[in-house]
Amino acid sequence: MEDHERDLPIILIHRTASFQDLPTCLVTSILSRLPAKTLISCTSVNKSWYALIKNPKFISIHLNQSIKNGNHYLLLTPEYYSKKSYYCPLISERDFTEESKFEIPFGTCHNAVRVYGSCNGLICLGDQCPNNLGRDIHLWNPFVNKHKHIQSSCYVDLLTNFKDLDKILPVIGFGFHEDDCDFRVLRIFFRLDKNYLGDLEPRVEVYSSRSDSWRRVSANVPRLVNHSKRAFVNGSVYWLAANSKEWIVSFNFKNEVFEEFKLPASFRHGVGRRQIVVLMEFKGLVSVCAFDLTVIGSEPCSVWVRRENGGSVSWFEQFNVVLKVKGWPLMFTKSGKLIMRTIDETKLILYDLENLEFKDFGNIGSFTANVSCMESLSLFEDGNAVFKQAGHGFE
To answer: What gap in Å lies between CA 359 and CA 97, rounded to an integer?
Structure first.
């Protein structure tokens, strides 16, 4: 150091660090932990945050954070006409308290909606009215107040032939194609006659959210399915067969093939005489739940799950208990609690089948519970954002 440099005073400049000084990976990690509603507000902070939050990769990270935190919710939906209840209460699965109410962003002919499924933060639903069932389809993310109306069809004649509405049964399935990072909607058109399932081969089409279009699928549909209840598990959608009391039918969104397999033998002996059988998802597995409503004063309940064992897939009995409350089985929560509706259809019951404890939700009016969802940013970008989820944990 030169002599004249030693005589110069040392000046320390202090500058307060800002959020902008943080590495992008750290900013992403922090923001991904925020609720969807807060993140929408954050897009107004600056251009870099706007671009980050609307990036499909960030949407994926945010969803996986929601899965990791276990932030699952029950979305109650109006089941029948009511002028006062055209909204959806949101119930936290953590403590089962109401956290919010979401107004349904589209109209239906009787103010009642049919839920077709929930996956990766999106809910697929439509009109409950018989004349519109399976014809009017919407994708909805209530957390970001976005929805997309899926219109048209490869079989417009079947959708618009109002003379044969009672003979054409559209069945809907909803899921996600992980390899293509694409939400998919399956629609099967069954033509019914006096023998219930007519001679006309069912027509099959699949909608892609990525291309925003329908396309025909040449697939052999093994049998008529029950359109009232379905489950999406590990890339496939499942239904109970409608014209047989022994079978489950599935459709895989990846290979676009239908398959069928039998219910547990103990179920097949009782179905149709004294048992009510409901198809559900139980902790990421296909499950069937059977209730015997003929026993006075109690309600025997049997739950079987289908899981892999030694390279083959088999049925295993998960629960065989006697419940203290009579009701209709609706769904399992993500934590494995059973949601029931009382026989008089006025209350929801949360039942823990492991310790046989239950909680009464109280009077629910015209609402029912049949969908579990989680916070996500899906549809935030112009109603078309799709993404790939790391690992599984589909809803």
So the answer is: 12
Q: Where are the beta strands (DSSP E) in 22-96?
A: 72-78, 87-92
Q: Can you tell me the distance from the alpha carbon of 319 to that of 238, in angstroms, rounded to the nearest whole number?
A: 21
Residue 241 near residue 230, CB atoms below 8 Å: no
Q: For residues 172 and 116, is the Cβ–Cβ distance under 8 A?
A: yes
Helix (H, G, I), strand (E, B) or coil at 30: helix
Rounded Cα–Cα distance for residues 359 and 239 (Å) = 29
Look up residue 229 and give its DSSP letter.
Answer: E
* Per-residue model confidence as pLDDT tens digits over 224-249: 888 777 899 999 999 988 877 788 99
Task: Say how many C-beta atoms besides its own lie within 10 A of residue 192's C-beta.
Answer: 15
* pLDDT at residue number 395: 33
| Rounded Cα distance, 109 and 132, in Å | 8
Which letter does DSSP use for residue 19 in this model? G
Q: Residue 135: CB partners within 8 Å, gap ≥ 6?
A: 126, 127, 159, 170
How far is the C-alpha of 331 from the C-alpha of 29, rounded, in Å?
A: 33
Cα separations in angstroms, 159 against 162, 199, 201: 8, 19, 16
DSSP string, 319-375: EEEEESS-EEEEEE-TTSPEEEEETTSSEEEEEETTTTEEEEEEE-TTEEEEEEEE-
Q: How confident is the model at residue 385 (pLDDT cuts 50, 70, 90)?
A: very low
C-alpha–C-alpha distance, residues 19 and 232, integer Å: 41
Tell me how far CA of residue 10 lies from CA of 2, 16, 49, 83, 181, in angstroms. Answer: 15, 20, 38, 75, 57
Contact at 8 Å (CB) between 73 and 99? yes
pLDDT at residue 307 greater than cutoff 60:
yes
Q: How far apart are CA 94 and CA 73, in angstroms?
A: 8
- Calculate the average pLDDT of the chain: 81
- Kindly report the pTM of this predicted structure: 0.85
